[in-house]
Amino acid sequence: MTIQFGNPDRPNSYIGKTVPRPNARRLVQGRGVYVDDIVLPRMVHVAFVRSPFAHAKINSIDAEDAKAVKGVLRVFTGQDIAEVCKPWVAVLAHLKGLKSPPEHAIAVDRACWVGEPVAAVVATSRAAAEDGAALVDVDYEQLDVVTDMMTALDPETPVLHPEMGDNLAFRRLHEQGDVDETFRTAHKVVSARFVTGRHTGVTLEPRSILVDWNPAEEQMTAWHATQAPHMIQTVLATHLDLPESRVRVICEDVGGSYGIKVHVYPDEMATAAIAKIMKRPVKFIADRLESFSSDIHARDHQIEAKIAVGEDGRILAMDVDDWTAIGPYSVYPRTSAIEGNQVVNLCGGPYDFQNYRARTTVVFQNKTPTCQYRAVGHPIAVAITEGLVDMAAAEIGMDPVEIRRRNMFRDDAYPVTSPANMRFEGLSHHASMDKLLELMDYDGLRAEQAELRKKGIYRGIGIASFIELTNPSPFMYGIGGARISAQDGCTVRMDPDGSIVALSGVTEQGQGTEAMLSQVVAEGLGVSPARVRVITGDTQVTPYGGGTWASRGAGIGGEAALQAARALRDSILEVAASMLQADQAQLDIRDGAVVDSTSGEARMPLEELGRIVYFRGDTLPKGLPRELVQTRHFITSEYPFAFTNGVQASYLEVDTETGIVKLLKHWCVEDCGRVINPLLVDEQIRGGIVQGLGGALFEEIHYDAEGQLLNGSMADYLVPMAAEMPDMIIGHVETPTGESLLGAKGAGEAGTAGSPAAVMNAINDALRPMGAQVTEMPFTPERIVRALGTLND
Amino acid sequence: MTEMFRDKIDISLTVNGEPVEARVPAGQHLVDFLRGELGLTGAHASCEHGVCGACTLKVDGKAVRGCLMLAAQADGADVWTVEGLSDLGAIKDLQDVFVERNALQCGFCTPGMLVAINELLEAGGMPSRDQIREHLSGNYCRCTGYEAIVDAVESVARVRAHKGAA
Prior knowledge:
The structure holds 2 protein chains of 2 kinds. Chain A is α+β, with helices and mostly antiparallel strands. Chain A is built from 19 helices and 30 strands. A 7-stranded mixed beta sheet of chain A has the order 3-5-1-13-10-11-12, sandwiched between helices. In chain A, strands 7-17-16-15-8 form a 5-stranded mixed beta sheet, sandwiched between helices. Chain A is globular. Chain A starts with 23 loop residues before the first helix and ends in a 6-residue tail after the last helix. Chain B has a 5-stranded mixed beta sheet with strand order 2-1-5-3-4. By secondary structure, chain B is an alpha+beta fold. Chain B has 6 helices and 5 strands. Helices cover 39% and strands 16% of the residues of chain B. The longest helix of chain B has 19 residues, at 147-165. Classes of the chains: A alpha+beta, B alpha+beta. At the A-B interface, α1 and α17 of A face α2, α3, α4, α5 and α6 of B.
């Protein structure tokens, strides 16, 4: 059975249409249920004492004053927690050489970054817990710090973990072709140094967990703001020594995630350990200041890179030397080597060339750990690639669009393997570029830019092509030994009244997962989406799966839902055929009723079928299967990842006096395969673009040389606000993946992947008449006026 | 504690049109009082220093930050949260368009966003897109990219202005 997605008049055509999100109505009425909204009997609150030093030995902890605070019940040290919570080591076998020391939920004898938990205070209210935490007296002995990634491997730099031998966490070199010889003989070589700022996610809902341990049932229940509830279930069971069947993770509404909430955090593990020790519910809600120092950071890279091109603009070679620092520990269980690894995998992504060398060097340091954040590594790789391509175009006097056209893989070239050994099933760079140019009126904008330049107004147009890695297979984590599921499942059942319940392992953090699943199930089954109730985020109820990350919700979770819905349709029709004494092949389900598939004539409403199956089963043949519930799991098998592609453009104006950039308009054309809900995809792209614009223009975590975090508040760490953001035009090309019936690839990260490069190229396009260029993000007014030479001190 | 500095304060106010009497800790913020004591969890605490707007409430007719106002300061005040405004139907047109336009994703900022927008819309007139963006400059959204929110506000303002004119 194949669904004719191309035919808009097909029966039950919900895939490809905008339908409302079933959970949105609740959220606009303030009826969402986030972790902090849940109150349980006997619940207590925990606040953490966090290290004020980037590196310090903990000589002793005096908690007497803290315990005297009204409402404080107990104070826990690292040693107390270590007795019930095993430390973890975040390495993956397939990232050869990756090393990281054991990490404890609460530091046992040494703190390694500002913000690392060193003690926990439990009280009857969060306010009392905070009052107590302020009175815990920790005797620290400050140690030498490692803060500069570029000197972390120098012999004179102290080694952060002496047992590791050096500060190198991971290094990978990938080389293909004759890179050195190509650079030696090339027509032009352009090189640049790129820097991407250290970011954090700033989810509006801070990290949140409420854990209850019920010793009478030997059952742990964790309400958790997480993207991967089954992964957390496994981790809690493993490290707290519980059978996995005795751990239940529930995520109701989650207030923003972006990859921040897909990791295992020490303070959250400590909260679970405390619940187990105290045998009662314990709530931890990070406050904003601790979010900045304890949520994972990302994107802190420094890169030297060069490109070689021929006279005709053909790319001959690329050479990338990427450095990043990840804090004192690789983050569990996904590891902190993935981002650097992605830079190696993704540089040069859209382009057909032969000679490629990329190296990533990942080092330890005394700052907040970094790990996967939305579009892992993508904005870095795209900025390197697209920055170099634009510089090469300028060097040989070629239009930025023309140089891309000459190098992008042909749309009919697939499947192909890139110089980085990435396998592409089917991409659409040229069709996407065609659509982008049409949407933005490229020639018109270039004419406007030239006119305004005569008046001293400096506008720039920046283009950035990109690839995005989605629908990961076990090649991302599983083969490295991590218990992170790449498959996902969905159970679809019909109840007596003909209503449908779909239980899915993928989760909802606002992307619209529930709406997407309701559409897929509705079409697969033959009912309206409004009739489908979607349940996600409860490990005791939903099939085991990976959750929502790496843009896998629609491509993996959606396909599982479609297959389960089709299977349930078959079960229903088998029963219906028996009841109606009809040929099953001649029946279909349309709009909630069994119909004759040829004439469309109604034969029986699903309510009637449900009534008979559930209440008058005695009237059906004895041997007739009557399961009105089906479960299917899906995993990709042909390609390790379903790559998507797209192209973005930024139009902006640089005030050359102040260095202030005004974003005028932004365009993105992307190809996520089958579009299930156009409005939701567009809004994922827009939201992603704006997170990338934040990285391009505002966001940067600052530390001093001692590893002190300097801007740990929302007033100091700037994120995009409504007033600075442009309107965004989104377009699509659809190249469905052949891995699934649905054909959906991911769309969650494309916006973030490409927008910083588009902005960088636009700024440099604007500044080119002055001979100025910026490559260090974020492109603050100061960096721009320095590039212009008007600020020199 | 002496009478000079009491650590508990008796307050009497109306919340969503209903009378409330309570004895609150002197340092308790209004949003914590509403969430923790009254179970009105629609307003959210996020930055807790007046920057993000997720806790925005309507107090005596104005949009205020629930994390910057003490519960004790609300003595005698008329406080409305998103729950009360929803029950009244006061922002139904706005909520409908938010759902239709997908002007929210995770929804955590949304209650505060709606209360802030309500203040703009109650001022009447037809704000420009720039004015809408400016008015929302105290409300962070990390999911949407803002354009959908601006679109939603613009369309509700247009309908309301049209109704006003008719």
